[in-house]
Specification:
single chain; alpha/beta; Rossmann fold; nine-stranded mixed sheet
Length: 238
């Protein structure tokens, strides 16, 4: 299978417990009837509550759920990752996530798994971590940070859910602190095949994704065609 990354601006079991559309979409991309789905709660400090919510949601789905605690890793970390069909990364502190993954060599294992066909996915911190840069509040106020760099450009989640996201993202791109990139509403997910954006889907009728860039010192925000998973119609934000 081609490498796949599904980056969610918000949604999934942790934000929309009664709306399974995005989580079910992720499961479908593995192309298996009972994929092994591994939840990585690293960004939340391996929150027990977060892990329990994952199992409550995914134990009811046609999959084999498991989770990886970086604070109590298995003896064969590489083998553990290689057995997974889907990696689902939770939200939280992006900076801590990347530091811990690199310390344990998990970043390299995940990259190998991605290139071998494992579907990588995540929400918020678990979305922006794959890009070259992200807009994060990991160290306080919203600010740019360098991420893993597997997907080109920058990314910000919660575009419609936090009042400061849009103006801060625009300012950082206009000033050159962030490269052009993708802004994802809560409920919107950008599906990359290889390093190219293939689809944008949403769990909410009005959730959208945008590509933001700067030209002649002005921000250009282009809506990306988005398919609401509760229907078949593509829409473009006005």
């Amino acid at each position: 299978m081609s490498p796949q990354i599904i980056a969610m601006g918000g949604g999934g079991f942790s934000m929309e417990p009664d709306n399974p559309l995005l989580d079910d979409y992720i499961l479908e991309q593995a192309g298996k009837s009972d994929p092994v789905v591994c939840f990585l709660p690293t960004a939340s400090g391996d929150s027990d509550t977060y892990v329990r919510r994952f199992y409550s949601a995914f134990s009811l789905k046609p999959c084999r759920p498991r989770h990886l605690s970086i604070f109590e890793p298995p003896a064969d970390l590489g083998g553990f990752i290689n057995d997974c069909d889907i990696i689902y990364v939770g939200g939280g502190n992006t900076r801590n996530l990347i530091v811990l993954w690199k310390e344990w060599g998990l970043d390299a294992l995940l990259r190998d798994a991605w290139q071998a066909g494992c579907v990588l996915s995540g929400i918020s911190a678990g979305a922006i971590c794959w890009f070259t840069q992200g807009l994060t509040d990991s160290a306080g106020p919203l600010a740019p940070m360098n991420c893993l760099g597997w997907l080109p450009g920058s990314c910000t989640p919660h575009y419609d859910g936090e009042a400061n996201r849009r103006p801060c993202y625009h300012r950082c791109i206009r000033e050159g602190a962030l490269s052009a990139g993708y802004a994802l509403d809560d409920g919107a997910a950008a599906h990359f095949i290889g390093t190219e954006l293939a689809h944008v889907v949403s769990s909410r009728p009005n959730a959208r994704a945008y590509h933001a860039s700067v030209k002649n010192k002005q921000i250009f925000e282009e809506p990306i065609p988005t398919r609401f998973l509760g229907g078949s119609r593509y829409v473009i934000a006005g």
